[in-house]
Amino acid sequence: MKEIDPEKTDRTAAFKLWMHAPMPMVTFFKTLNVARLVKLSRRGYKFNMLLCWCIGKAASGTKQFYLLPMGDKLMRFDRLAVNVIVPTHAGGIAACDIPFSDDVKKFGREYDELTARVSDTGQAYEAGDDYMVIGTSALTRSEIDGAVNIYAGIYNNPFLIWSRYKKHLFKTILRISFQFHHTQMDGNDAAAFLERLQREIDSLKI
């Protein structure tokens, strides 16, 4: 992680416009076809792990994900991680960062190991300051059409929320919300990321 000069990036105008806006977050909603992930989950792979990997893979091909406004600064990262919310054995929840790897099997092994550790100990796991973290929350006990996350001004990371998938005609659909800081990316960048996410889901092979 290192501070960069916004004037030397293509986010100059966005930095000036949105860095000190009272509500700089934007939320998009997208309906995904996750039939491919459901099929793979029947072979023993966790659906949530597969979706998180696809999110990381799609984000890794979107250069804006490696930038993040923090305080009054614009920071650049070299690596990504996907954060998941883990139910703990004590009955609470804790956050867990999974470092992204292009190798879905490696990502899956770390997903299983780290989430199990967090569940057992009840202690959150952070990947470290070198990672730009993509937040996620899977509300799989319910069916919702979308969610707008809170904005506290101290957590500017992109965040995705989804609930249960469901059968719909010849598809298995999942409605997902994607919140991002406008300094980090524009609407076209966010929309392109969501389209890339669908392509990663459709083409995933293990």
Automatic annotation (TrEMBL):
GO molecular function, one term: chloramphenicol O-acetyltransferase activity
InterPro entries membership: CAT-like_dom_sf, Cmp_AcTrfase
NCBIfam families: CatA_like_2
Protein's name according to its UniProt entry: Chloramphenicol acetyltransferase
Source organism: Candidatus Borkfalkia excrementavium
